[in-house]
From TrEMBL:
This is Cytochrome c551 peroxidase. PROSITE patterns: CYTC. Its EC number is 1.11.1.5. PANTHER family: CYTOCHROME C PEROXIDASE-RELATED. It comes from Rosistilla carotiformis. It is an enzyme of class 1 (oxidoreductase). The keyword Transmembrane helix does not apply. InterPro entries: Cyt_c-like_dom, Cyt_c-like_dom_sf, Cytochrome_c_Peroxidase/MauG, Di-haem_cyt_c_peroxidsae, MauG/Cytc_peroxidase. SUPFAM superfamilies: Cytochrome c. It holds the Pfam family CCP_MauG. GO terms for molecular function: cytochrome-c peroxidase activity; electron transfer activity; heme binding; metal ion binding. Heme c 1 binds at residues 66, 69-70. GO terms for cellular component: periplasmic space.
Amino acid sequence: MNYTTRARIQPLAIAILILGIADVHAQDFAPLPKTAALPGDTNEKIELGKKLFFDPRLSSTGTVSCNSCHNVMEGGDDGRATSMGVDGLTGPRNAPTVWNSAFQASQFWDGRAATLEEQAKGPMVADVEMGMLAHDQVIGRIKDIPAYIQEFQAVYGDDSDVTIENAVDAIAAFERVLITPDAPLDRYLARQKDAMSSAQIRGMELFESTGCTECHSGPALNGWRPDSEAEFAPFPRIPDSDYVTQYELTADLGRSNASGDSADDHHFKTPTLRNITLTAPYFHNGRVNSLAEACRVMAATQLDVELTDAEVADLTAFMESLEGEFPELIFPRLPSRSGESVIRAPAEKRQREES
Ligand code: HEC
Ligand code: HEC
């Protein structure tokens, strides 16, 4: 054997010796971290954040909470193509899941918020979501409920006021609890070989060999790694695919709405595929109703690949292996203002129409 052949064979042989099968896939995938908590995420803060997340009184009509569109009793979304907020108004985009949203480098389809805290300020004052006029009005509502003031003080100090910064800090702490580790893929990567079925393993290998992992890699299958920068992918990358017109995939400019840079036209954040079986319909416009069709669309629009039905079945089987263990959540008991409602919707609505 001459030197050059040996040089080629040796690293391969060493790689095979050192790496088990699971480690080969571990280059593309990683187990979901079992915690996303930051220092300061105390139980009291998380409980306060949970209350605010579930409280519909933070909306103008008193009917819409974060949980209305991000139902954590299920997939963390609303199952609708696009969400419905106060007064039956609908927005332009599909609600992403809040499960595992801690594991991404930016929030929203176009990444316009860098953090969960910044993100949580948006919906309260979006007129098609919670419809409040301004954050001051949200804070006024919270302060109308005396027990909330005490809870804010218990978490943020006796001298602290109820502020929007503290409110979103608490909500984000709660969202960091919304993680779903120990999916079959995680157990498989931890060398529990029977954690995934043979169809799921075939699907995983196809997912890698087709090129899906170019974007959907890492613990949340969205390209995120701890401390990674926000990245956006072109979608659709193959603009003449028939699916593009069928599902109106170019109506929304995506990232450039947020960055103002036309080079970002039709770029979107790669979404997590964790629990993707639970969050139909799919894509930023919610136009694709089934996961099988979403896989066909992705293969065609991102990789110029036409999948067979058997391949689609294996890919969707793989995605079932991304359903994790959901933490036990106990319904919060929301504080009330004794003997009085804090919702004065008709007057507030008039005020909104006048402003
Ligand atoms: C009326 C429905 C609605 C309500 C109410 C709502 N959201 Fe959302 N949420 C959405 C939609 C739609 C998006 C995506 C919007 C976009 O990308 O432009 C979104 C995006 C998000 C994201 C980003 C997830 C990701 O993967 O990028 C998080 C986190 C989130 N919402 C949390 C919250 C919190 C916290 C509240 C309450 C303060 C809330 N939402 C209220 C519909 C809603
Ligand atoms: C070039 C990057 C890239 C590649 C390659 C890619 N994706 Fe995606 N994927 C994305 C982006 C970006 C989105 C969000 C599209 C949007 O705006 O709706 C997405 C969305 C999805 C969704 C829908 C998620 C949701 O919450 O609605 C699924 C399912 C999916 N991809 C699976 C796949 C599969 C399977 C493959 C391989 C056949 C693949 N992707 C290849 C970037 C990519």
